[in-house]
Amino acid sequence: MLKKVFGSAVFGVEATTIIVEVNVDKGVGYHLVGLPDNAIKESNYRIAAALQNNGYRIPGKKITINMAPADLRKEGSAYDLTLAVGILAASNQINAENLDDYLIMGELSLDGSLQPIKGALPIAVKAREEGFKGFILPSQNAKEAAIVNDLRVYGVDNIKQVINHFDKGETLEQTIINTREEFYKNLDFPEFDFADVKGQESIKRCMEIAAAGGHNIILIGPPGSGKTMLAKRLPSILPPMTLHEALETTKIHSVVGRVKDHTGLMAQRPFRSPHHTISNVALVGGGSYPQPGEISLSHNGVLFLDELPEFKREVLEVMRQPLEDREVTISRAKFTVTYPSSFMLVASMNPSPGGYFNDPDAPVTSSPAEMQRYMSKISGPLLDRIDIHIEVTPVPFEKLSDDRKGESSVDIRKRVTAARELQTKRFEALENVHYNAQMNTKQIREYCKLDDASLELLKSAMERLNLSARAYDRILKVSRTIADLEGSVDVTGAHISEAIQYRSLDREGWLG
């Protein structure tokens, strides 16, 4: 007897419906076809034990299972439940007339209980598009899938519940989530707050500008000056995620199984801080069966690269295209996947290999030659994509011992959000530009017009400070953001003056 059960495969951040055709006929043998990987091929052992422990069995007949479309590679253990239900239905052990209404996914344990799966959210989105009435999956993933409206989501703990639902008509409990209510309820404030940072007012100002315009930023300073502390607090001043951004971010984290059991929608902007030993595949994504990398897991959030020169040069170079295009495309012989990667890059580094420079009291000093070798580890094209370079100096004892609290992240976030709203309105007619850092040369000329006095100031500064040509556009972008924070329509000389200070690494012969 032939039965069809429906599952799903995830490629990139999109799902594809898989039809599992199970045919039970006279003879002996178990044949699984349709490009399954090893995890799926091993499923018959898990299925046999799970059915045995729940009063059912794999029939001693010839079982042929085809996973269509047969030319797509299927991977993972999430098809266990799909295959098990198909075998039971095709061998007439259960009565399953309405299998066509459901998409079924889940990994089986030997006792019949279900383990969580990856990609529940994109699968649920696809199930709704394909017109399925319900989606049966492990209860750990139920909240994640229930974000999708107009689809009945049933979280189950054991295969017995699924069998009883089809065979005996027992009703499964539907997981219902009010997506908007859940989203706004979880907009808790992050644990890190700028109020905890002593001193460093100029650096806080830089972070505010970077957050307001979505600018990439690099912090240069000796050990203990507070670079990591400041970077960790950046997400706390970024504007709250929109519902669309939250869905987009949750989808990517769902693909790699990083969504926590108790949460449906991710309400906090991601903050990723990979170690400097990371490989280029782990950073940008890829592998034989591509998975999102750290830059995609940072989508709509912050990617923090601590000790930038310690990262392998080829790892940093593969970030060039994603930083420019805000997406990464991974091509293989048979398919191509694209992952979104619109993130804010925050990098930090010491000014020299020893960590200190031109400090007579420092425990380790470096020569100018060592300094230049150290700085040359970071390529010009990568620095070209970082709008703000700022030097961080150690906090003096007087400020460290001061009991007064600094300005809180809540207050800074209000100003940042107001500036972002101005940019959203300015760029509403443009499809791929939402904030100042995304402007191209044409848009810079249109929205960053200078009067004669400001233009002369910029020209004079570039000549006197030996700023490179690539600094020109970056200074204009940052000036536009400073003007937005002040609510100014025009970019003035004062805005240009401040922006020029934030291009430390562009100064010719910069060594500290």
Nearest-integer average pLDDT: 88
Q: CATH superfamily of the largest domain, called what?
A: P-loop containing nucleotide triphosphate hydrolases
Low confidence ranges: 508-512
The number of helical runs is 22
What is the number of domains?
2
Please summarize the sheet with the most strands: 5 strands, parallel
Query: Which outline best applies?
Result: elongated
The CATH architecture of the largest domain would be 3-Layer(aba) Sandwich
Radius of gyration: 28 Å
Query: How much strand content do the residues show?
Result: 15-25%
Biggest sheet, strands in spatial order?
11-14-17-10-18
Determine the structural class based on helices, strands and strand pairing: alpha/beta
Gap between N and C termini: 76 Å
Number of strands: 18
- CATH class label of the largest domain: Alpha Beta
- Would you give the CATH topology of the largest domain? Rossmann fold
In percent, how helical is the residue content? 25-40%
